[in-house]
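Entry for the shared binder. Reason: the reviewer on the internal report wants the predicted structure included alongside the sequence.
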Amino acid sequence: MKILLLEDDTALASILVDYLEDDYEVDQTYSMKKALSLSEEGRYDLYIFDINVPDGDGISLLKELRSFSDTTPAIFITAFHDTKYLKSAFESGANDFIKKPFDLEELGQRILNIKRQFGLDSKINIDENIIFDMQTHTVQTPEKSYTMTHKESDFLHYLYKNRARVVSSDELLQNIWEFEEMPSDDAVRTVVKNLRKYIGKEHIKNVRGEGYKFE
């Protein structure tokens, strides 16, 4: 699991990186602009953003990321105790909020909750008979084990973690493929066809005119 941490307090940032790197891969920056650049260069499983940083704020950053259909879960950390910031954070698309000072264990538990909610553990039970392993990019069924391409694995995980809603082809293209390799809608249909061979047609529904939904 890969985390992008935006925190301008150098002492706190160092403590958080040391703590998080025991279990996760972490990229840390003090700058909103650098955080935006990092998010464009690579994919992350979780954002942890401070609200106030020298060149902007985490809320504006998350709003911009959400405008590009980036659904990566986000936790805000802040020294503010005013409820207006809490409201703004959730309106921007945040999934959780933690106020300074906080225990590292509290942050750890909030991350575990996000992992459960968004299926960020390595192994996911598609159903009682099918196991999807994100780390090895495999699907294990009672009859056979399938090894997927990285794109197929990313695609399946994206549908799974957004299983509460319909995901459009455009959103899938923007979030699974890099900008310079942006393919046509045919690529989405091809991946869906392959995934249905692995896990069954019943788990990926085609919602006419809207996109796909994991069930």
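Summary line for the report: The first helix runs from residue 10 to 20.
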